[in-house]
UniProtKB/TrEMBL annotation:
One of its GO terms (molecular function) is DNA binding. InterPro entries: DNA_Rcmb_RecR, Rcmb_RecR, Rcmb_RecR_Znf, TOPRIM_dom, TOPRIM_RecR. It comes from the Bacteria. HAMAP family: RecR (MF_00017). PROSITE patterns: TOPRIM. The keyword Transmembrane helix does not apply. This is Recombination protein RecR. Residues 81-176 form the Toprim domain. Keywords: DNA damage, DNA recombination, DNA repair, Metal-binding, Zinc, Zinc-finger. A zinc finger (C4-type) spans 58-73. It comes from Neotamlana laminarinivorans.
Length: 205
């Protein structure tokens, strides 16, 4: 791509670092900004910088939050002994949208994936095991996507907590194998949490 302006080229180059944004899309977005008042770009830049510098992670569940303890964890009406284990904040949002779950979450921050160099210690697994060890947990619900990495992660956690007196379940698979949670429609996802099955029985199938 030949640019008539170094400033334009820099902006396009930075924008195209984002996932799913190629050079052409980046150029379209940048040209759109040039047609808008400069204040619009300022608002966007401010929002991004503020988000990046000030955002926090809940000290209990590791969900993205503006405060130390997220709104879900600090909500007195939620069942804090029922923990839904998810991969990232998008899964929390998807499950919250179903209004079918009244427990709390634990956000792992990814899945165990040896191919990508992600091991158990790169994820927030230890803090989950600690909650179980401290007897704070009645039930763990595994709600990771049913990919090989998701299954590996579930099984790893299951093995670590097997000796403790905690129920383990997995969301019912109205969600087909390989589907990412965030794409499941709300009704299907809501049902799959309500109709969750014991984790052991998911291993036999
Ligand atoms: Zn939290």
């Amino acid at each position: 791509m030949e640019f008539s302006s170094k400033l334009l080229e820099n902006a396009v180059s930075e924008m195209s670092q984002l996932p799913g944004i190629g050079k052409r899309t980046a150029l379209r977005l940048v040209l759109h900004m040039l047609k808008q008042p400069a204040s619009r770009t300022q608002l966007l830049a401010d929002a991004l910088v503020k988000m990046r510098t000030e955002v926090k992670f809940c000290k209990s569940c590791h969900n993205i939050s503006d405060v130390d303890l997220c709104e879900i964890c600090s909500n007195k009406s939620r069942a804090t002994d029922t923990i839904c284990v998810v991969e990232d904040v998008r899964d929390v949002m998807a499950i919250e949208n179903t209004s079918s779950f009244k427990g709390i979450y634990h956000v792992l921050g990814g899945k165990i994936s040896p191919m990508d160099g992600v091991g158990p210690h790169d994820l927030k697994i230890d803090s989950l095991i600690n909650k179980v060890k401290q007897g704070e947990v009645k039930e763990l619900i595994f709600a990771l996507s049913s990919t090989m990495e998701g299954d590996t992660t579930n099984f790893y956690i299951y093995k670590q907590i097997q000796e403790y007196n905690v129920l383990t379940s997995t969301i019912a698979r109205g969600i087909s194998v390989g589907d990412e949670l965030e794409y499941a429609d709300e009704i299907t996802l809501g049902r799959s949490i309500v109709n969750r099955i014991p984790f052991e029985s998911s291993l036999k199938s």
